[in-house]
Target: RNA methyltransferase
Amino acid sequence: MSPAIRVRPRRELAAARRRRAHRCWGHLVAAPLWPMHQANLGTLLRTCDAVGACLAVPPWRWVDEALARGNTLRQPSCVHRVGDPVRWLAAERASGAQVLGVELTDEAVRLADLPMARRRTIVVLGHEATGIPAEALDSLDAAVEIPMVGTGLSLNVAVAGSLVLYKLAGLT
Model:
């Protein structure tokens, strides 16, 4: 009797995926512009590769080191350096991109109700302790809420960003 579940071998999985890294898809961009913990950036970078997204980060030296340490992929990933986050977000919005913040607001869309991204979408992730700064909230088109039933107030940047990216990519 054969098992009910067939595990696909690595060779078969690799054949079904991209042959090489992309230069820049530009459709989805994860933007942890105020990062606090180094480990979260490497994890989020892996998710970006999995869903076909790019990562936008501030040009801080420790961010580059964290990405280099956290990138366990064999190919380089799509990473954009952002000098002034508020100015960059305003420019992205002015160019037609949808700018979504993962933040608790009165008008936030629940993650389950978030539609798949149909145009360039920037997913703004705030600081783990303080969220998205007030001066950047004006650049958001909408906010996304990730419902929680536990005692914690929020998820870390890597987990929150991964959940939202998978939903926007239409992979959930």
User: Anything to note?
Assistant: The mean pLDDT is 86.
